[in-house]
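ugh ok fine here u go
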Amino acid sequence: MVKTSEPSKHIKKMIPYQIMELREIQEEFAQFIKRRGWDKFYGTQVFTHLIEEIGEIGKHLLYKEGYKIKGLGHEGVETSISQEFAQVFNLLMQLAILHNVDLEAAWKTEFARMKQRFPEKEWRQALGINEE
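structure:
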């Protein structure tokens, strides 16, 4: 299902954009990787690349939180953190496609399990968050 919608205030430069179901995104990406022959890569290769890109997100966080400072023994980052998240998302999809995992169905099942496993009220209380 494709809908035209306005993005949240946190998303910039994307007006208007199309909302797609996760299954549609995964199906489109499966065709993208197949047309390029990327479906021939081993899962271990894609997984290692995924870990590399997750490390790039970590690098962004180290700079953002001041643990690393550009010019003080560190070079800084050359890409945006949103680009790194997109690369992680794409590689995670590629890995799921290689293993025939329907991410939408898997997420829905896991999210339902998490709602039962991690009750909101108990977690808010444990973290000292007042009821709203």
